Amino acid sequence: MSPEERDRLRAEMINLLEAERQEELALLLEEIHPTDIAALLRELGVEDRARVFRLLAQQQAGAVLHETDDQSLLELVRALDEDELTEILGGMPPDNAAEVVSDLPEAEAEKLLDLMEEEGAENVQELLKYGEKTAGRIMTPEFLAVHEETPVSQALDYLRKSADAESVFYLYVVDDHNHLVGVAPLRRLITADPSTPTRLICQREVLSVTPETDQEEVAGLVTKHNLLAVPVVSRENTLLGTITVDDVIDVIHEEATEDIQRLAGVAGDETVFDSPRAVFTKRLLWRFINLATAILAASVIGLFEESIQSLALLAVFMPIVASMGGIGTTQTATVVIRGIALGDMTRAHLWRVLKKELQLGLTTGAINGVVMMAIAYVWKGQFLLSFILGAALLFNMFVAAVVGVLIPMALKIFRIDPAIASSVIITTFTDVFGFFSFLGLATLLLRFLAP
After folding, report:
1. CA distance linking residue 143 with residue 127, whole number of Å
2. How far apart are CA 93 and CA 77, in angstroms?
3. Are 229 and 243 in contact (CB under 8 A)?
4. How many CB atoms lie within 10 A of CB 6?
5. Strand partners, 173
6. 134: Cβ contacts below 8 Å, ≥ 6 apart
7. Distance between alpha carbon 447 and the CA centroid of its chain, in Å?
8. What are phi and psi of 394, to 5 degrees?
9. Please, what are the averages of pLDDT over each run of 10 residues along the chain (451 residues)?
10. How far apart, in whole angstroms, are the C-alpha atoms of residue 209 and residue 136?
11. CB–CB of 367/323 below 8 Å?
């Protein structure tokens, strides 16, 4: 939906609300996608948001609830009756309901689960027992599976009766103990003899994940192999559920957003709609971390305070050294972190990638150093100072290449999100080494530099 279309619909919704024309508004909402309704609701006040939400059909309301951001969701939940919410949650797919419940404060989530029907609550609680960002949390326990001895004709009848199921992409084949033994492609089912047991036409090699598998790994598997769904099995290979491609798209969006935010030193779950109070501690933490690294860089400068006092001209060029190191690390770390996220960057490829980045760092550093030497000489007329500046830039580009590759990989090995490396750790290295090399060389050669 374009911004213009959204503005038009929002104005129309407000007019219908003010005129108390609920029936017309309900008809209008039926024609709008749940994602767009969630976006429109964010722009309304809490009371109007609840009034509009109550006009939605149950299935549509569940889809809208699932698409609503955390802050709007919390406000909406508190504005609605508990009976309304439990009815909506009960009609949602278990994985979507679990995601909504997990976004609520613990006390409110437990209260809603207690009010839900027993079967629905058990399905949601079963998913919530798995850790966040795991396959178990995003899987749906509803899937299509038949026994391996089931004839093709009966399997096709089962598929027709289950046409509304979310996971109709594949028909899984299980044994007497519900162990996954294969997947029956729809094309083979349609073309096979009706009396053939499904075990004879199923594919035995099935890509699967366990409930503990990281959701990012699941997304990589689905993307790499062009799957529409992936089965989730226990350690004993018991079929527990499936993860469909629509859930994987949500994971890819979530992980990409998180990485971008962390590259900028922002908490990975922050949105533009969060209240200042909700993000205050998150922002403050990152800024304290950045303050600590800035103090470290400043302490290096402090070591050469006398040199700067003797030749104040050094202070003019210090920001250039820091800035070039910053762009060097950002470029290298962005490529490496993206490679790690896609599964392309592994320890086996470390030396190859490091050689490439070192070559780029040295060549681009040399060119930038020569250009900056010429500019500094024309600007200030001191050849030796220009040479020191060029050498410091070259050295800092070398450091940027090394730490831009090694630090994200090290963080990945220690199971820390590498996305935090660019904004917190790597820039500190280039600032410290850049200032140390520039001011250190200048101090050694200070007697040859004109005041």
Report:
1. 15
2. 18
3. yes
4. 15
5. 146, 182
6. 211, 212, 213, 214, 215
7. 53
8. -60, -45
9. 80 86 89 88 85 88 86 82 85 88 85 83 90 91 91 91 67 93 88 92 92 91 89 94 90 77 63 72 79 89 90 90 88 86 82 94 94 94 92 94 91 78 76 92 82 58
10. 9
11. no
The first and second tokens of residue 323, run together, are 């800035």
Are 236 and 180 in contact by the 8 Å Cβ rule? The answer is no
**What amino acid is encoded at 100 in this protein?**
V
* CA angle (125 as vertex; 120, 126 as ends), nearest 5: 100
- Helices vs. strands in the chain: H and E counts, helices first: 22, 5
**Contact criterion met (CB below 8 Å) for 386 and 440:** no
Asked if residue 145 lies in contact with residue 162, where contact means CB atoms within 8 angstroms, the answer is: no
Task: Specify the residue for token string 């993000």.
Answer: 279
Name residues whose C-beta falls within 8 Å of residue 244's C-beta, 6 or more positions apart in sequence: 140, 166, 167, 169, 228, 229
Structure token pair of residue 169:
């992409």
Looking at the DSSP assignment, which residues form a beta bridge with residue 140? 242
Please name each of the domains of the chain with its CATH number: 3-135 (1.25.60.10), 145-252 (3.10.580.10), 276-448 (1.10.357.20)
Cβ neighbors of 324 (< 8 A, separation 6 or more) are 368, 393, 396, 397, 434
CA-closest candidate to residue 265, choices 421, 429, 133, 413: 421
Residue 170 contacts residue 146 (beta carbons within 8 Å): no
Could you give the strand order of the β-sheet that contains 171-174, starting from the edge strand earlier in sequence? 145-147, 171-174, 180-184
Helix 245-263 vs helix 215-225: crossing angle, to nearest 10: 120
Q: Are 125 and 89 in contact (CB under 8 A)?
A: no
Q: CB 418: neighbour CB atoms within 10 A?
A: 26
* Residue at 367: amino acid letter: I
d(CA 419, CA 268): 10
Residue 231, H or E segment: strand 229-233
